[in-house]
Design brief:
The chain is mainly alpha-helical. It has two domains: about 15-190, Preprotein translocase SecY subunit; about 195-445, SecY subunit domain (Preprotein translocase SecY subunit, Orthogonal Bundle), CATH 1.10.3370. The chain is about 70% helix and about 5% strand. The chain has 18 helices and five strands. The protein has helices at about 1-15, 15-35, 50-55, 55-65, 80-95, 100-105, 110-140, 150-175, 180-190, 195-205, 210-235, 270-290, 300-305, 310-330, 335-345, 355-390, 395, 400-425; strands at about 235-245, 245-250, 250-255, 260-265, 345-350. A hairpin with a 2-residue loop joins strand 2 and strand 3 (about 250-255). It is globular, with a radius of gyration of 24 Å.
Amino acid sequence: MKRFIETLKNIWKIEELREKILLTLGLLLVYRLGSNVVLPGIDPESLTNLQNQADGGIIGILNAFTGGAFANASILALGIMPYISASIVIQLLGMAVPTIQKMQKEGESGRRKINQITRFLTIAITAAQAPGYIANLMSQNVGVTISPSLFWFTSIIVLTAGTVFAMWLGERITDKGVGNGISLLIMVGIIASLPQAFLQEFASKIDRGGGLVLFIVEIAVLLFVILLSVALVQGVRRVPVQYAKRTTGGRTYSGNMARQYIPLKVNAAGVMPIIFAQAIMFIPVTVLSYAGLESGNANWLVSMFSDIQGFWYNFVFAVMIILFTYFYTAIQVNTNQMAEDLKRNGGFIPGIKPGKSTAEFLDTVLSRITLPGSIFLALLAILPAFAMVAGVNTQFAYFYGGTSLLIMVGVVLDTLQQIESYLLNRHYDGLMKSGKLKGRTVSAF
């Protein structure tokens, strides 16, 4: 405890770090306040049906990511998710569109161009999603105090502006604050529901005999799952690299003195496989519902993809996560480019020929470590279903795994790493007893 207090004092002593943390907290507070501002023309007392709808399914997931803004019919109801969708689209286009591929190789100037394209695409996606959200509002008999046509027009404008504002807040945090702003906004939205879910679970267990012991066991299991998630996020396979001759700090090293490592992450895909799989899992139900075929012969399909505690739902979900992990890892990690960079800089993997043989070796190693990583990721994704079956409250069960837990772990580790860097650069002790956090985590998005 004494060391923790001393670390907080050291953080406060660094003026630049102190200002960044305060700015980050202030912008996050603004985002949370905006999540409770209802759209103009809506009677807040008529939102009961919408809030009940957000208890499960894809609506529940969206509501969790927006910190309850979706169910509150807030001006930030669509949150930052359109920006995430736009970023995913740009990443996928980078595989097939030569122009975007060229921008990705142009360094900082290319990054600025891609960011600008992503912003415009975010506006387009938000403008397309806003009418769907408003139609859902109207179907839930939400009370509207102004004319429907005016409500539709103003709501589309306000929802689009709200997403642009959330995107701006995230970029300000990234540029001027601490951590990845977009990921922090999502994490804050997820954590916002944790206290209520915790209290509900505690109250439900206390009301029955032996409930306190069971609740303590649940918390212990949750902490264990968090430790496993940290291990998944931080896990790397270090591939040794040696340079024939390398100059560092004015000194020339050769042979074993110049040995370094390529850190291949066990889970290079992050949470994206879960997001992709979840999106596809909801497509059949959505399509059949809009087509009016949710009954009759298609009823079994709707039932299977709607029961998040069912065997077949979780089996298909896990298989899709494993497949998408390989797919997204192939997008994120370009072994051919890594081999070319090594060859250009005079580096080689001991026992492996430079060039094509190196690329094949890296690809083989990556495939081997991705298999256990993808299986582990799939197990984490379906853990909430096991928690629900075991009697854990639905809202609290979502924190036992899946996208929510991985985002929180990844964002917290990334933010702590930045704070750690500031402390060590100013010759203070780090956050950890060893003085260094292992590795550098990749932001959630």
